[in-house]
């Protein structure tokens, strides 16, 4: 194998190119902007932030704080740029977006092992199978390349939109109100956790839902495509009882403790085998985050719900990774092609960066004939790899940001929340250090 080719100079592509080059590989990085822009990017700079300038919480014992520490321990270019261009933002790490992208662009251009080529890559077939090709073209991958990927993967393997329901921390659910059961006792009989509502509770929830503030739809996010994954508030707007005949239907469910038949039910499905987090089935939404917090907390059982992830709906190109990706981010059908960034089915600036870092490490090691080491699933980056390539995925694979729900519980439980988080973080960092030590040898 001769060279690493990286397609896409966003957060993940820049990180991948820089890491592979730092590990000794010769890298060619392709970026289509400014010749061809995406719907959201505004400049021709590398590592442009398409929306918020916040890289989320910087608290060391938060999930985003943990992934930052892992990236920094690995010498991440994106984290170096973020620290160098930080602006005051309370407990968050926010950056001056112009300076941030300029920093990344300058570092890439100055790197002796990286050649930067501006232009769209429309096909993957021209790359030598002896090379390592990292596809890091992001949620707004150019249409021509997306079509090519769809052909390579076949059938329904490329998603274009993301309809995400909120995810709740299992410990914050009131189990006096919620009960386990499957509709008509199907499956395991208790596969779902059900939050029952009486007529008054439904009325309150319904009115708050339809009156809540929504995120403004961008002009490229066509409403028409959402018939198959309609936001709950849009469905509610069609009539007061539409939800009761749809995702909130009460049929086939009875709380055996009270023997009361609910008027409406929100069903929660476990996100992982340990059942540390639950997803609100059918509650994909475009409500603003603060409104989601208020509206869903009206549901009995969720009065104190802690949101690990809020719902959203947006254009997002990503592949069905559990079916198509190996743990080293190569395509099962074409192992010289690595997939990195948001297109792998992670969600968020840092999560995308992390997938770029790993792809860069793996590609550079392969070039030197070395095996890949894998981060343990107890680390933030390893837990994301588990999420996108793990077997325990529902049929309809959904992207995820980093959250503590992805990390396995401690072997010895700790009740105090702050201490528990610190222990999870310490456990992750110890494993991460080992991974870096093995990978940078
Ligand atoms: C509108 C929008 C808003 C978002 N807001 C946030 C947010 O506020 N916070 C957050 O954490 N995450 C946000 N995300 C999600 C995600 O974290 C970011 O999109 C992130 O930039 C993804 O990193 P990436 O490297 O995978 O993709 P990108 O950063 O988008 O990089 C992909 C790069 O590939 C280039 N490219 C595409 N096709 C080709 C091609 N064929 N040839 C050559 N180059 C190509 C693009 O021009 C781009 O530079 C948002 C996503 C979108 C779409």
Notes on the protein architecture:
The strands form four sheets. A six-stranded antiparallel β-sheet has the order 10-11-12-13-9-14. A five-stranded parallel β-sheet has the order 6-2-1-7-16, covered by helices on one side. The protein has a three-stranded antiparallel β-sheet with strand order 3-5-4. With 441 residues, the protein is of the alpha/beta class. The protein has two domains: 282 residues, 3-Layer(bba) Sandwich (FAD/NAD(P)-binding domain), CATH 3.50.50.60; 144 residues, Elongation Factor Tu (Ef-tu), domain 3, CATH 2.40.30. 31% of the residues lie in helices and 16% in strands. Helix 3 packs across helix 4. The mean pLDDT is 92. The chain binds flavin-adenine dinucleotide (FAD). Flavin-adenine dinucleotide (FAD) binds next to helix 1, strand 2, strand 15 and helix 10.
Strand order, largest beta sheet: 10-11-12-13-9-14
Tell me the number of structural domains.
2
Determine the fraction of residues in helical runs and give it as a percent range.
Answer: 25-40%
User: In CATH's first tier, which class of the largest domain applies?
Assistant: Alpha Beta
Task: Report low-confidence residues grouped into runs of 5 or more.
Answer: none
Unique bound compounds: flavin-adenine dinucleotide
Shape: globular
Number of helices: 12
Q: Can you give the mean pLDDT?
A: 92
């Amino acid at each position: 194998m001769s060279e690493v080719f990286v397609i896409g100079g966003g957060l993940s592509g820049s990180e991948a190119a820089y890491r592979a080059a730092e590990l000794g590989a010769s890298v060619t990085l392709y970026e289509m902007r400014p010749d061809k822009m995406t719907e959201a990017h505004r400049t021709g700079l590398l590592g442009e932030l398409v929306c918020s300038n916040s890289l989320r919480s910087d608290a060391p014992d938060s999930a985003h704080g943990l992934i930052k520490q892992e990236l920094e321990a690995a010498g991440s270019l994106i984290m170096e740029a973020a620290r160098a261009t930080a602006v005051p933002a309370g407990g968050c790490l926010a950056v001056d977006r112009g300076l941030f992208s300029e920093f990344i662009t300058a570092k890439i251009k100055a790197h002796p092992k990286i050649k930067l080529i501006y232009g769209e890559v429309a096909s993957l077939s021209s790359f030598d199978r002896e090379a390592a090709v990292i596809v890091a073209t992001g949620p707004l991958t150019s249409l021509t390349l997306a079509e090519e990927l769809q052909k390579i993967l076949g059938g329904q393997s490329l998603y274009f939109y993301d309809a995400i329901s909120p995810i709740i921390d299992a410990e914050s659910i009131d189990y006096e109100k919620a009960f386990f059961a499957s509709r008509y006792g199907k499956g395991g009989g208790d596969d779902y956790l059900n939050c029952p509502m009486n007529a008054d509770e439904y009325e309150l929830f319904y009115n708050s839902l339809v009156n809540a503030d929504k995120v403004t739809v961008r002009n490229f996010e066509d409403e028409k495509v959402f018939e198959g994954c309609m936001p709950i508030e849009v469905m509610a707007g069609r009539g007061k009882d539409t939800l009761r005949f749809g995702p909130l239907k009460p049929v086939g469910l009875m709380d055996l403790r009270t023997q009361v038949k609910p008027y409406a039910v929100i069903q929660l499905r476990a996100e992982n085998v340990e059942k540390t987090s639950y997803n609100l089935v059918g509650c994909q939404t475009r409500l603003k985050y603060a409104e989601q917090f208020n509206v869903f907390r009206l549901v009995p059982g969720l009065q104190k719900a802690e949101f690990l992830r809020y719902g959203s709906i947006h254009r997002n190109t990503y592949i069905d990774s559990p079916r198509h990706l190996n743990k080293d981010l190569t395509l099962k059908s074409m192992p010289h092609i690595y997939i990195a960034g948001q297109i792998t089915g992670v969600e968020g600036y840092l999560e995308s960066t992390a997938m770029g870092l790993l792809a860069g490490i793996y590609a550079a090691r392969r070039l030197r004939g070395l095996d890949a080491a894998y981060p343990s699933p107890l680390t933030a980056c390893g837990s994301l790899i588990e999420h996108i390539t793990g077997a325990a995925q529902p049929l309809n694979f959904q992207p995820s940001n980093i959250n503590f729900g992805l990390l396995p519980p401690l072997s010895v439980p700790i009740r105090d929340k702050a201490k528990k988080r610190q222990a999870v973080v310490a456990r992750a960092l110890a494993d991460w250090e080992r991974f870096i030590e093995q990978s940078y040898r």
